[in-house]
C-alpha cells in the first residue's frame, strides 16, 4: 500500500485511528521510558544489574510457578469441564456456576483467607482446636493461584466441548475405537485452540501476579519489581522489562501454536445430539471432585471471611473506612467501564470491517495493555509521570483511571466483536450512500445496534477493575483508598479482622456482576 493510500485510509477511519493512537501512546510511551531508564545505567552497572544471581533466581521462581500452575489448572480445569459438559451427572448447571464463581474472589483475597484460616492462631485452631496447614512459599502460591485461575481453562474448554460435532466421535467409534479412544483421537485435537486460549490467560496472570506471591512470601519478578521500585529504580526498570519480555515470548509462542488452527474446531451440525457418558463406578469420585474444587476455592474463603466479620468488631472499626473505600472503588470501576467502549468500539469496528495490515494492527492493539504485567506497566507510568508529564498529573485520579482503562480494554474486545458481527454491514453502507461520514455512521447507525455488546463489555471492565490491586496500589492519589488497597494494607500487618469487611464487599460486588453475566450467558 502506498503512502498516499495509507494516509487516505487513516483519514477515512479517523475515529479508529485516533483511538489506536491513544492506545499505542498510552501503552508504548511507558515501555519506552522503562527502556530509557534501564539504559541510563552505564554498561558495567547494567551488566551487574541484569546478570546477577538474584535475577536468575527470580526468573527461575517465576518460570517454576508459571509451569506448576499451568499443570495444576489443567489437571483441575479440563476434567471439571468434561464432567459438566459430557458426564451423566445431576446438577451439571449448578456445578458449572460453582466452577465460575471463584472468579469473583481475587487471588490476594483468597490468599488472605487461607492465611487467616491456618496456623497456630488461625481460625481453625481457635474454632475447632486443631491446626491446619497455613500456605506459604511456592506451595502456597501454587495452591492459591490454581484455585483462582483454573476457571479460565474450565470455561474455554467447556465452551469448546459443547460446540463440538458429535459426528466426529461417532465416526471414530464406527471404525472400532473405544469411547475414550474416540474422544482422545477425534475430540481432543479440536479442543487445542480453546485450551491454549485459557492457558495463555493463566500464565499471563501468574507471571503478572503480585498480591498472592507477596502474601505467600515467594519471590518472583513481580514481587521484586514492587520492592525494588523504592530502592533501586534502575534495577526495578530492568526487572520490569524482563517481565514484559517474558510476556511477549509467551504471546508469540501462543500465536505460533495456534497458527493454522483458527477454524480447526468444526461447528455443530445439529444432526446428532451429544450423548452423556455414564460414569458407573466413577460417579462418587466425580461428585467428590466437583464439590471439592468450589469448596476450597469458594466456600472455605467466604466462610472464613464471614467468620472474621461476625466474631469481631471489624465492622464498627472499619465502618467509615469501608464506606469511603467502596465509594472510591465504584467510582474508579464505573469510570473505566464508561471509557473502555469509547476506545474499543472504533477499534473493533475498523478491525472487523477493514482489511489488510491496518485492520490486523487495530485488532491486536487492545491486547497490548493486557499483555504487559501490571506492576511493570504501573512502574513505567510512575517513571514517566515523575520525569516527563506535568507534576500535577502524578498521583492524580485521571492518571489512575487512564492506566486502568488501558489495562483492561482487552476485557471489552470479545463482547464488542461478537456484537458487531451481528450488525448487518449493508446498514452502514446505506448510511454512507445517504451522505453520512465515518463518524456519523459509527455514532448514529453502528453504536445503537451494539448496545448489548457495549453493556457486556462495560460489565467485564467493571468487574476487573473492582478486583484490581497493583495499579491502584502504585498510582492511586494520596488518601484515595479502594477496597483492594485496604485489604492489602491490613493483611500485610496481619489485621485480618479489619480486612474482612473490605474483602467481603469485593466478593459481593464481583459476585453479583458475575452472576448477572452468567445468567445472561445462559439466556
Summarize the helices and strands and which ones pair or pack.
Elements (H helix, E strand, L loop, with lengths): L2 H10 L1 H26 L3 H8 L2 H34 L5 H9 L6 H11 L5 H6 L8 H27 L3 H8 L4 H9 L4 H17 L2 H5 L5 H8 L4 H26 L24 H28 L3 H4 L1 H35 L2 H9 L2 H5 L2 H14 L9 H12 L1 H12 L3 H9 L4 H12 L1 H17 L2 H6 L7 H10 L3 H27 L1
Helix pairs in contact: 2-14, 2-17, 2-20, 4-5, 4-8, 4-11, 6-8, 6-15, 8-11, 9-10, 11-14, 13-14, 14-20, 15-28, 17-18, 17-21, 17-22, 17-25, 22-25, 23-24, 25-28, 27-28
Taken in chain order, the helices and strands follow as: HHHHHHHHHHHHHHHHHHHHHHHHHHHH
- Count the domains: 2
H/I helix tally: 28
Q: Regions with pLDDT < 50 over 5+ consecutive residues? A: 1-11, 262-272
Radius of gyration, in Å, reads 24 Å
CATH homologous superfamily designation of the largest domain: MetI-like
Could you tell me the number of beta strands?
0
What does the largest sheet look like?
Answer: none
Structural category:
mainly alpha
Mean pLDDT: 77
Rounded to the nearest angstrom, the distance between the terminal CA atoms is 45 Å
The first-level CATH class of the largest domain is given as Mainly Alpha
Strand content: under 5%
Explain what this protein looks like in three dimensions.
The chain is mainly α and 523 residues long. It folds into two domains: 1-51 and 315-523, MetI-like fold; 55-311, Orthogonal Bundle (MetI-like fold). The protein is 77% helix and 0% strand. It is built from 28 helices and no strands. The protein has helices spanning 3-12, 14-39, 43-50, 53-86, 92-100, 107-117, 123-128, 137-163, 167-174, 179-187, 192-208, 211-215, 221-228, 233-258, 283-310, 314-317, 319-353, 356-364, 367-371, 374-387, 397-408, 410-421, 425-433, 438-449, 451-467, 470-475, 483-492, 496-522. α14 (233-258) packs across α20. The radius of gyration is 24 Å and the shape is globular. Residues 1-11 and 262-272 have low confidence and may be disordered.
